[in-house]
């Protein structure tokens, strides 16, 4: 048994995960111990399920953001796509009277289209991802507000509501099931497929990847398109959970996703990161938010805490990269613009 455990511990996946996330795992454990002593509800089954359900929305988005950041890019439009897709899907059902399945498909396609447009402009026209996705952030948000008139739309369709509030086996929330499936798919995609190898290659050294025949343009378009789809799916699940489509939701979701990635060891310089790290990062964000809620901390203070966490994570990333991570991110963006 001990020999098998040592063999398992020496495996690349496990040792890399522990090495890259040791600090944040210690913080997570210490914060969990602190909460277990200061609040009575933290370790209850109900609260644990609630935390997993809350984490799920951020996780859908963070999975796509992981690929984007490994490429050396950033996507600021994800939160607005969440709001747009959820608002449109509910509006299509309630206002336009479209069949449920058609409304869902159209909403997901429109979110995917937003990601596709991001990818095409970034890959074909060499515009920095920061600029393109910031523009799409405003466009998607504007579409949600224009379509809904700035008002939320209520929906009580039972099947739609069950998408985000239902359970499997009467115990596990469906959003958590979606999250587990997506994590498994993305772990396989990044570690076992040629597509994953290409993503790492482009983020690690764009020029070398180009010389080696990596289809950079296709990979970039695919990554941003996939991120748009995941954001749209998050919008669907969130609208279902809230029984409504709300154009104001999604604000700050891009920051939560970025925080989860960077906390999990995904380097802003590109070429480095793992889904396991993003999962841990999302758990940290979720547990901290849940703990602050249990302690009655204002949501305004929670914004400050999240900002400090992101800053702290970037500082660690910079130190691990010998002071060059963020500057490399800027350099990669400039290189993409020139090439």
Automatic annotation (TrEMBL):
InterPro entries: ABC_transp_permease
Predominant location: membrane
Coiled coil stretches, renumbered: none
MF GO annotations: transmembrane transporter activity
Membrane-spanning residues: 21-39, 59-88, 100-123, 129-147, 168-190, 221-239, 275-293, 299-316
Cellular component terms per the entry's GO annotation: plasma membrane
Protein location: Cell membrane
Membrane-topology descriptor: Multi-pass membrane protein
Keyword terms of this UniProt record: Cell inner membrane, Cell membrane, Membrane, Transmembrane, Transmembrane helix, Transport
CDD domains for this protein: TM_PBP1_transp_AraH_like
Pfam families on file: BPD_transp_2
Keyword match Cell inner membrane: yes
Protein's name in the database: Inner-membrane translocator
Organism: Sediminispirochaeta smaragdinae (strain DSM 11293 / JCM 15392 / SEBR 4228) (Spirochaeta smaragdinae)
């Amino acid at each position: 048994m001990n020999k098998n455990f040592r063999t398992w511990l020496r495996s690349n996946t496990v040792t890399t995960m522990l090495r890259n996330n040791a600090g944040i795992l210690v913080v997570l454990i210490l914060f969990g111990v602190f909460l277990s002593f200061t609040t009575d509800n933290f370790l209850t089954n109900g609260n644990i399920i609630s935390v997993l359900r809350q984490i799920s929305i951020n996780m859908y988005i963070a999975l796509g953001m992981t690929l984007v950041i490994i490429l050396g890019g950033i996507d600021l439009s994800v939160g607005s796509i969440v709001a747009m897709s959820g608002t449109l899907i509910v509006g299509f059902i309630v206002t336009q009277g479209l069949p449920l399945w058609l409304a869902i498909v159209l909403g997901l396609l429109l979110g995917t289209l937003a990601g596709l447009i991001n990818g095409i402009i970034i890959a074909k026209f060499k515009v920095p991802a920061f600029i393109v996705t910031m523009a799409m952030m405003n466009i998607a948000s504007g579409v949600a507000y224009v379509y809904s008139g700035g008002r939320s739309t209520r929906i009580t369709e039972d099947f739609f509501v069950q998408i985000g509030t239902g359970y499997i086996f009467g115990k596990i929330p469906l959003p958590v099931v979606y999250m587990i499936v997506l994590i498994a798919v993305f772990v396989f995609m990044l570690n076992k497929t040629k597509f994953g190898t290409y993503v790492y290659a482009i983020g690690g050294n764009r020029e070398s990847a180009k010389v080696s025949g990596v289809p950079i343009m296709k990979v970039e378009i695919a990554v941003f398109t996939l991120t748009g789809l995941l954001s749209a799916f998050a919008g669907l699940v969130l609208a279902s959970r809230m029984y409504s489509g709300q154009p104001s939701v999604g604000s700050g979701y891009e920051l939560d996703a970025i925080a989860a990635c960077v906390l999990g060891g995904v380097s802003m310089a590109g070429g480095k990161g793992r889904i396991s790290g993003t999962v841990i990062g999302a758990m940290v964000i979720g547990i901290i938010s849940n703990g602050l809620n249990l302690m009655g901390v204002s949501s305004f203070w929670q914004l400050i805490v999240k900002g400090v966490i992101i800053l702290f994570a970037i500082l660690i990333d910079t130190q691990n990269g010998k002071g060059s991570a963020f500057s490399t991110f800027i350099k990669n963006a400039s290189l993409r613009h020139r090439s």
